[in-house]
Amino acid sequence: MEWDRTPEIGDEALVVRGGMMHHRDVRTAAATYAKRFGGASGISAWHFPGVSEEDAAALIPTQHRTYRSTTAGDLRGAGFEIRTTGRAGHVTIKFPGEVTDEEIERLVDCFHPEKVRPQYSEEGNGASN
After folding, report:
1. How far apart are CA 106 and CA 101, in angstroms?
2. Which residues contact 8 (CB under 8 A, 6 or more apart)?
3. Residues 70-115 pLDDT 10s
4. Burial grade of 57 (CB within 10 A; 0-12, 13-18, 19 or more)
5. Running DSSP on this structure, what letter comes out for residue 65?
6. How many C-alpha atoms does 64 have within 13 Å on its Cβ side?
7. Can you say whether residue 65 is alpha, beta or left, with left for phi > 0 and alpha for psi between -120 and 50 degrees?
8. Domain extents in the chain
């Protein structure tokens, strides 16, 4: 992936990711990304300009019942790179180096506590996380 050819999003931009972001899930996602794109480790997330957090959570294409949110600026402040990649709304959060437990913790700490996605907010409705 060529990072210099993808548009950058502003520091104030809302970023959402489906699921609880357990360390093992983040590690697996980063390893899959590295294998697919030749070495760089990253994870997928979503950014929809001009959309509220709740609407963004509803738009992310995931089966997860929950999501977590942050800003591009918080991610960059912790040393991660973030760029738009792939289809509309998709962003990649790139690890600055090796994916260690400490790096994963630093990434997870950038995100607010999980919330239930709007389409699953009524009790008894929704998929497993």
Report:
1. 9
2. 82, 83, 84
3. 999 999 999 999 988 888 899 999 999 889 999 999 999 999 999 9
4. buried
5. S
6. 21
7. alpha
8. 7-120
